[in-house]
Amino acid sequence: MKMTLSHFEAAILFALLTSIVLGIVTKKTDRERIRYAVYCFLCFVGALFGIGWVMYLGHR
Predict the structure, then answer these.
(1) Rounded CA gap, 35 and 40, in Å?
(2) Averaged over 6-27, what is the pLDDT?
(3) Contact assessment for residue 37 and residue 23, using Cβ atoms and an 8 Å cutoff
């Protein structure tokens, strides 16, 4: 079975997995880990859209 992801899907998957790892390795309690993982994920997604718009406007 072959899995093909679009660039956007791959970036979201990277953001999710990286956020989980960052939450696990940097915080001590489960509550802090979850909050930090969600925060990191939202920052990654925000950066993804921000950089995407910069690239779109720069390409026009």
Answers:
(1) 9
(2) 96
(3) yes
φ, ψ dihedrals at 32, nearest 5°? -65, -40
Please, what is the angle between helix 30-59 and helix 7-26, to 10°? 150
| pTM recorded for the entire structure | 0.87
Instruction: Supply the pLDDT for residue 58.
Output: 94
* Contact assessment for residue 24 and residue 17, using Cβ atoms and an 8 Å cutoff: no
Give the helix, strand, coil percentages of the chain, each rounded to 5.
85, 0, 15
Q: Tokens 């921000």 appear where?
A: 50
Name the residue type at position 32: E
Which tokens in the block code for residue 32? 């802090």
